[in-house]
């Protein structure tokens, strides 16, 4: 990678960019809290050891998620990356995902992070594309599986509105669009990586020769070259390689989707509400899990960094039936505090040190 490429990447991930997603998300949450929360609401809260326990487990779920990512990166790199390097890459990757629109995510600069930790450009590209396929494969498999297990009327129902499977239901609408994008992207990438990489490269180059797309032609050609390099690397891998990597992916995403369940248990453990009015058993917990997956698919179509604003708003509406009245906005904030904001802060802390290390290594 040239110095010009490095400068472009570093401009894209500068720590100051944490302000926009934080401000958007906090503005939405503060607005919702101002409309919903009353001082008397807090009179029903009681602190207990169970509250601490469930809160700790919610953070353990996120740790499990990140550890699964680290294991996967260790597998995909053929153990060429150290655990410390992998931790830095994951945190920087998540940081980039948090400050860019959900449809872009951190993948666009992940190749740079991995390459700067001593992996060749071809291998780095292969690793990033493999993670993309594995992540999308999880959603592609889980979404229809959940539709078979969970009642679709419950999955897309909000309040008294019946959860219909048509485009008059905005949640079904967003979910179908997000899922279609993921499916099309995965099929296209898989075909390019494992069947006809040169044909896809040629297609990209020719498409971006069109007059209104010509200014992006250099980027399209680079993407095509990356695809061919990655294809050569990934075709060497056997079935067990992919099985291990997908198992790590499965545990990572599944752990993330249990976070809300434990946050809800913490809230209910610390309140005087009748918990059976909100979560009665495993079926309700599984429905919450399923709705989180659908929410993540819906977030793909949002243009804000990390889905900020939309994520908090959709949570407050889509999960409201499981949360006591007066605590919905607060739970939305807690959810983002556990699953989103830590990556902004950790990334902003890790990034300067990592950049300094890279600059020093380049000068030696």
Q: Note the run of SSEs as H and E.
A: HHHHHHHHHHHHHHHH
Q: Let me know the number of strands.
A: 0
What share of the residues lie within helices? over 70%
Contiguous helical run count = 16
Largest sheet: none
Shape: globular
SSE class: mainly alpha
Q: Tell me the count of domains.
A: 1
Mean pLDDT reading: 77
**Are there runs of 5+ residues with pLDDT below 50, and where?**
none
Rg from C-alpha positions?
22 Å
Q: In what range is the share of β-strand residues?
A: under 5%
Euclidean distance between termini CA atoms: 17 Å
Key features of this structure:
364 residues; mainly alpha; 0% strand; globular
Structure, explained:
By secondary structure, this protein is mainly α. The protein has one domain. The chain has helices at 3-12, 19-36, 49-76, 83-99, 107-115, 121-149, 152-155, 170-194, 197-207, 217-234, 239-257, 259-269, 282-299, 310-318, 328-339, 341-363. It is globular and about 60 Å long. The model has no long low-confidence stretch (mean pLDDT 77).
């Amino acid at each position: 990678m040239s110095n010009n490429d490095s400068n472009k990447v570093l401009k894209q991930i500068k720590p100051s960019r944490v302000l926009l997603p934080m401000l958007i998300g906090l503005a939405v949450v503060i607005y919702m809290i101002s409309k919903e929360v009353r001082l008397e609401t807090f009179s029903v809260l009681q602190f207990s050891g169970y509250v601490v326990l469930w809160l700790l487990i919610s953070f353990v779920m996120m740790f499990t998620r990140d550890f699964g990512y680290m294991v996967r990166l260790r597998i995909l790199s053929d153990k060429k990356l150290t655990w410390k390097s992998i931790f830095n890459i994951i945190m920087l990757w998540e940081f980039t995902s948090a400050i860019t629109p959900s449809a872009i995510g951190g993948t666009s600069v992940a190749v740079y992070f991995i390459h700067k930790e001593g992996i060749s450009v071809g291998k780095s590209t292969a690793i990033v594309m493999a993670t993309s396929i594995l992540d999308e494969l999880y959603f592609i498999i889980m979404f229809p599986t959940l539709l078979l297990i969970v009642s679709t009327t419950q999955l897309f129902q909000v309040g008294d509105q019946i959860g219909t499977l048509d485009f008059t239901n905005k949640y079904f609408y967003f979910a179908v669009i997000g899922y279609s994008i993921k499916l099309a992207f995965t099929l296209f990438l898989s075909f390019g990586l494992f069947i006809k990489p040169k044909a896809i490269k040629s297609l990209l180059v020719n498409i971006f020769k069109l007059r209104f797309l010509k200014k992006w032609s250099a980027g399209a050609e680079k993407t095509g070259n990356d695809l061919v390099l990655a294809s050569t690397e990934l075709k060497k891998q056997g079935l067990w390689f992919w099985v291990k990597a997908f198992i790590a992916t499965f545990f990572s995403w599944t752990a993330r989707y249990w976070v809300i369940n434990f946050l809800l248990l913490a809230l209910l453990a610390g309140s005087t509400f009748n918990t059976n009015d909100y979560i009665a058993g495993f079926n309700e917990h599984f429905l919450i899990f399923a709705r989180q997956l659908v929410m993540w698919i819906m977030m793909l179509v949002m243009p804000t960094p990390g889905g900020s604003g939309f994520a908090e708003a959709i949570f407050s509406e889509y999960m409201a039936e499981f949360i006591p009245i007066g605590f919905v906005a607060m739970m939305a904030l807690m959810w983002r505090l556990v699953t989103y904001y830590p990556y902004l802060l950790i990334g902003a802390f890790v990034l300067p040190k990592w950049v300094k290390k890279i600059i020093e290594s380049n000068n030696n």
